[in-house]
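ok so for the tutorial part 2 we go from a plain amino acid sequence to predicted structure tokens. step 1 is just haveing the sequence, like this:
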Amino acid sequence: MNIPNFRPAPQAPAASPAPAPLPGTQPGPGSILCLDIGSGTQDVLLTMPGLNPENWPRFVLPTPARRVARRIAELTAEGRHIWLHGENMGGGFFGAVKAHVAAGLRMAAHPDAALALHDNPERVRALGVDIADACPAGFAPVRLADYEPGFWRALLDTCGLPQPHLVVAAAQDHGHHPQGSNTVGRFELWRGFLNHSGDGQPGASPASLIYDAPPAQFTRLSTLQRAIGGGPVADTGAAAVLGALALPEVQARSAREGVLVVNAGNSHTIAFLVFRQRVWGVYEHHTGMLTTETLLRDLNEFRLCWLPDEQVRAAGGHGSAFAPDIPPETEGFRPAFVLGPRREMLRGHGQFIAPHGDMMLAGCHGLLHGLALRHGA
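step 2 — the prediction. this is what the tokens look like for a chain of 377 residues:
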């Protein structure tokens, strides 16, 4: 199904030049471990000074939440009660929790671990999960964590790779909203980003979403930052749009006219209206609720800045929002650049892009590009 004016961008070159070293992050030989933690996979890149980015080691592994889900399912099959402990993390094991409780088995969670299920302890209890500071007698402990330093030390050592001098990471963070909807609350954070650029310029800079110290409401990112040793963190949506903007052809096209960047993820689809490295609109929906037809309809209205926020939320999505005073030079954000593991939904309706030849590592390259932009590289 073709929609008028929703046209692919020109074909990209096979590879792009290596990014410049990041001021303040590469004092001589050293590597950076970049992690983009999604709902299906965690995509990991280890920069290696002296090598082209195409030769940097990379890993595409199951996301940590899938490991937790598998362990819960094993214990459910054994008929054992479970105590969740550790840290706030992605909630991709929620289905396993529901199946465990539905099987008539008990589950408890440490207050920190309970945040992975909901910000409000009463909502956690309503799921059938007790809150317990210590492991109850007879319960099997299951540790929650987005990042385990010991795992990465062992994996890199096994592969004969150097330990990084800096770890940077991205994860989706809905924000802390104990009394409201996480879906609505998350999108209010995007709305605030669009309406408060922070540097006095029109539009919003995606590089400002790379945090040395994440805002207080980003409890998952704060926990992740502590785990990685204090390095910069970002939301996966910010990493995705920065990954697209790391490509010279996307930068060049967006310097002339507005472009649409779409990241079709395993759980969430997020799109950005971009002009001159600034963001002018954000759209987010749950991928599992979308068909190609409904997504194309939404994107066509979104790029024209016609898509009502209420329409997206009524269909189960997060919403759509636009920055004020969109320049006429954007010309309807007609060229479309598409990435993400579910990008097949948009085949033929935009140019598929892959920074340095690997689409799954777009978020990692985005983290590096965002750091370079922040440091003026």
